[in-house]
Amino acid sequence: MRLYSGPLSMFGAKAEIAALEKGLPVRVFMVPYDPNTGYEPKHPDVLRVNPKRQVPVLIDEGLEIFDSTQIFEYFEHLKPDPALWPASPKARAEARLIEHKADEVYFPHVVRLMGLEETPDDPAAVAARAAAARFHLEVEGLLAGREYLAGAFSYADIGVYMATLFGERKGAVVGSDTPRLRAWRDRMSERPAVRQVAGAMAAYLVSIGRSIPPFMAELLQPALAS
What we know:
Elements: E1 2-5, H1 10-22, E2 27-30, H2 44-49, E3 57-60, E4 63-66, H3 68-78, H4 89-113, H5 123-142, H6 155-169, H7 179-189, H8 192-207, H9 214-218
Parallel strand pairs: 1-2
Antiparallel strand pairs: 1-3, 3-4
Helix pairs in contact: 1-3, 1-6, 1-8, 4-5, 4-6
């Protein structure tokens, strides 16, 4: 299997973490990226497979799919163990909803913050941070009595972790009013698959002179011995 991602692709990182958690034999190809021009010119395989012209794209023996959530579903059917969706229909539906909200409800606010880091008082930035903070509080509530967002570790955790990582980078800081969320993020950061992928992203950001928040800087340190 070939997974096309990018060094700063939140959605590609989700798929890469999932492949590692599943133990799937996926070769990751980082498409060319320039800090000034982005992902132009687009990789020809990405253009051919995804009409949205975006990573991630997965190719597996003639199958060509895109979208991180669709890749999650394929991984789950391909290798059911370890399960990364809950077993019961209600718990699975809840986990899928959480992952969907991370992508489609929370992350658009982070996108609005991109380019506004130097003007934090801009009304658009203020509104986006407020909306992100409401999501943080919602996640804080989900974690009451739970180690992970849908009970056991799932794709929902991968999705929310990566979305809030980008949120933190762009000014939507996970604050002291969400201690369970902060503790969950620390647990997630210690998972080998998460540390490998998010740590590589942190290292790339440092290599191109971008600042990273403190919790990402910790990803550059060797994982604690278990």
